[in-house]
Amino acid sequence: MFTLPDLPYSYNALEPYIDERTMQIHHDKHHGAYVKNLNDALTGQEAFLSMDMYELMKNLNKVPDAMRTKVRNNGGGHANHSFFWTSMVAGGSRPSGEIIKAIDSTFGSFTQFQDKFSAAGVGRFGSGWVWLISEKGKLSIMDTPNQDNPWMDNKTPILGLDVWEHAYYLKYQNLRADYIAAWWNIVNWNEVERRYKKFSS
What we know:
metal ion binding, 3-stranded antiparallel sheet, Mn/Fe_SOD_BS, Helix Hairpins, superoxide dismutase activity, 50% helix, SOD_C_sf, Superoxide dismutase, mainly alpha, minor pseudopilin epsh fold
């Protein structure tokens, strides 16, 4: 049985970049619905209900056809949001250590990385996500539609950004680029560094 994780901070902790009301609705209603729908879809499927959610994403091809789309959409929503909440922190942080070396080596500079990542977010048509991927320490940027994610392609994200309208519309309306620019102020680079070290070998 999958459960809705608590936020690692208060609803208003990410102000002024993400407003309290958006965080309440986004976490409690949207993420909560994904968890409920995922559990409902997998009723009686104990082998899948006992899986780690990221392992479930990697093994979607083993889910029975009749429920696979619901599991893909709602399991993706659960995995993506669980990952997203811990990718942010009140007050933000600055990249350092191994991750900034890897970013500079891959993209030329942190600013150039930000520009490419932000452009991928603005350019993602409709709803979706943008990801920083680490494959044995090699970095790349990818974006996915809807609640799809890199785990479905057996790739390992170390940073993810939700660009669905429900993530930003109350504060930024249709100005996705403004939301993305503000989001950089609350990225949890300590967590990104931890993930990078964990998955770089």
